[in-house]
Design a protein that fits this description.
The chain starts with 10 loop residues before the first helix and ends with a helix. The chain contains 17 helices and five strands. The protein has helices at about 10-15, 20, 40-55, 60-70, 85-105, 110-125, 135-145, 160-170, 195-205, 235-240, 275-290, 305-315, 320-330, 340-350, 365-375, 375-390, 395-424; strands spanning about 245-250, 260-265, 265-270, 275, 330-335. The chain is mainly alpha-helical. Helix 12 crosses helix 14 (about 340-350) and helix 13 (about 320-330) crosses helix 14 (about 340-350).
Length: about 425
């Protein structure tokens, strides 16, 4: 059991993105207990808790519950306030009963209120500081299995991890974890809470090929500023496009995953990202958890892959024009109200980085983009000329005709001058 692994977000980070880090319907754990926005859900939590305890039959509920929540409060690093063991029990029973009823489907009675709130509950359960320890849920689920008797859905081999994975990654919800080709977390990895499990799934299923260290296509160009320090950031998407860099959407496959962005041959390739209100919440909380989980990145970078992805998108997107560039190329599928909202989301999130982002997954890619930007003078402006004057076959033919006419005129002038001097 890890101690102090349930961290409360810093106030400034939560204030800057209040709609992304605060529960809308249900509060879980001590950090959001007592929120006015979630008060209406308390009566439903009580009802679900009673339903779960009824599944245990005529057993000593108190003894079973005391065992399930033992050691749970040591996992919280922040102030738990007036949050009690009974409240922790109710939250745990509510989550497990919710999962059981979801899995039982037609075998369970789910009222209209819960159906209406189901989408909001889904995302509330994945907020970074709206969590209870996973071992509490696992112990409660094991208590259910011990007393369930004959059940048309569950058996003694049923695992809570499998149930949670299916609930949070069903096809009706946004997720980066592909159930068709799902790579499960290592059995030796301890699961801290629900978001931690989702984070492990996202990372395990989206760490494809590492970006190449050296992909700059302009190494043969004249290095005009050999001693200039390469900046850590890169220009925005619209500015890069105006200066010859092209954008392409990168299709996902067994080898290419969500975080596999590359720069090669004047082309930045990034996998498609659908952005809606739900994906904003999930990305923001994975981003926050990526920074506070207290584990180094597997690839040696100082920051994790989700933080690196936010750094990349924040660098490429400054204004609505940058969003429009990525939309036209199919990299962003914007389901929000407008481009300004997308730009504001990535900019606000980028400003909340709690770590040094100078060494991230795309550091070498940033260096290559900047080499092209700063040093590939001839190649860069040749690319700009091609992009602006060769957009379609007609402009290409016109440019070719103009070039041939200029060549013919120069040749005629050369012969005329040569003939003049020959006569002299």
């Amino acid at each position: 059991m890890e101690i102090n692994n349930l961290v409360q977000l810093p106030t400034y980070m939560r204030e800057a993105n209040r709609g992304l880090f605060e529960p809308r319907v249900v509060s879980i754990g001590p950090y959001h207990h007592g929120n006015k926005s979630t008060s209406n859900m308390e009566v439903h939590k009580n009802r679900f808790c009673r339903s779960f305890l009824q599944r245990l039959g005529n057993v000593s509920h108190q003894d079973a519950i005391d065992h399930c929540i033992e050691g749970a409060f040591r996992c919280y690093s922040g102030n738990v306030g007036l949050y009690t063991a009974d409240m922790l029990t109710r939250d745990g029973c509510f989550i497990v009963e919710l999962l059981l009823q979801w899995r039982e489907g037609d075998h369970a009675h789910v009222d209209n209120h819960m159906r209406l709130m189901s989408n909001s509950i889904y995302y509330d359960l994945l907020l970074v500081d709206n969590q209870i320890p996973f071992f509490v849920l696992d112990r409660l689920f094991n208590e259910f299995k011990r007393h369930m008797g004959a059940n048309p859905v569950f058996n003694n081999d049923s695992q809570l991890v499998d149930l949670v994975i299916k609930f949070f990654n069903n096809k009706g919800q946004f997720s980066w974890a592909n159930l068709d080709h799902l790579s499960l977390p290592d059995a030796n990895q301890q699961i801290r809470h629900l978001l931690d499990l989702q984070y492990k799934l996202v990372i395990n299923n989206n760490m494809g090929i590492e970006p190449n260290n050296r992909n700059c296509p302009f190494s043969l160009c004249i290095n005009i500023c050999p001693n200039t320090i390469v900046p850590r950031g890169i220009p925005a998407a619209s500015e890069l496009q105006d200066n010859g860099v092209r954008f392409r959407v990168r299709g996902l496959s067994e080898q290419v995953k969500m975080f596999d962005a590359t720069f090669q041959g004047k082309i930045i390739r990034i996998p498609r990202f659908q952005i809606n209100f739900g994906s904003k919440i999930l990305l923001a909380n994975l981003f926050a958890y990526d920074q506070i989980k207290g584990e180094p990145a597997d690839n040696g970078a100082a920051v994790g892959p989700v933080t690196s992805y936010v750094v990349l998108m924040n660098a490429l997107i400054n204004t609505r024009e940058d969003v429009a560039v990525l939309q036209r190329k199919g990299i962003l599928d914007n389901l929000l109200s407008n481009e300004d909202e997308v730009a504001s989301f990535f900019n606000e999130l980028g400003r909340c980085a709690l770590v040094d982002v100078s060494n991230h997954r795309y550091t070498s890619m940033f260096e290559d983009v900047n080499r092209y930007w700063r040093n590939g003078f001839c190649c860069k402006y040749f690319a700009i000329c091609c992009m602006r004057h060769c957009k379609n076959p007609l402009t290409c033919l016109s440019l070719l005709a103009a070039f041939l006419l200029l060549s013919f005129s120069c040749t005629s002038m050369g012969f005329a001058i040569l003939k003049y001097y020959t006569r002299g």
